[in-house]
Amino acid sequence: MRAYGRLAFLLTLNTIVMFLLTIAFVERAEHVHLNLSNFYMALLMAAPMAALMLVGMGAMFPAKRLNVVLLVGFAILFGGVWWLGRAQAVQTGEKGNGLDRQHG
After folding, report:
1. How many domains does the chain divide into?
2. Is the dihedral of CA 21, 17, 68, 88 positive or negative?
3. Are residues 66 and 4 in contact, defined by beta-carbon separation less than 8 angstroms?
4. Is residue 97 predicted with pLDDT exceeding 60?
5. Is 10 within 8 Å of 56 (Cβ atoms)?
6. In terms of C-beta density within 10 A (0-12 exposed, 13-18 middle, 19 or more buried), how is residue 74 classed?
7. Cβ atoms 30, 64 nearer than 8 A
8. Do the Cβ atoms of 41 and 85 come closer than 8 Å?
9. Three state DSSP letters for the chain
10. For residue range 13-39, what is the model confidence (pLDDT) as tens digits?
């Protein structure tokens, strides 16, 4: 079970790094606008990475039933975050694209 704790720790750390990378190409600090889209993008990258880590290093994770539950959870996370990012209903109160708030 220790391997699953390490997986959770590494996934959390990687998600934080990916969140920070969503602003990597911003020219000036005043152009940084942290919002839910940044967080959604980090989770969108983390979910398939988690599944790949679990499958690719399967020998480290011996609990097959738990592995299946985790893979289903990662798929649900991916789909849910994809929907939230596309709908942006949580951010804007209405369906729109990511540029509406900045350029509209």
Report:
1. 1
2. negative
3. yes
4. no
5. no
6. buried
7. no
8. yes
9. CHHHHHHHHHHHHHHHHHHHHCCCCCCCHHHCCCCHHHHHHHHHHHHHHHHHHHHHCHHHCCCHHHHHHHHHHHHHHHHHHHHHHHHCHHHHCCCCCCCHHHHC
10. 999 999 999 888 888 888 888 788 889
Of 48, 14, 9, 41, nearest to 25 (Cα)?
A: 41
pTM over 0.85: no
Placement of tokens 């190409």 in the chain: 25
Would you state the structure tokens that stand for residue 1, as one six-digit string?
């079970």
Query: How many CB atoms neighbour CB 11 within 10 A?
Result: 17
d(CA 5, CA 12): 11
Domain of residue 74 covers 2-103
Instruction: In whole angstroms, give the CA distance from residue 75 to residue 70.
Output: 9
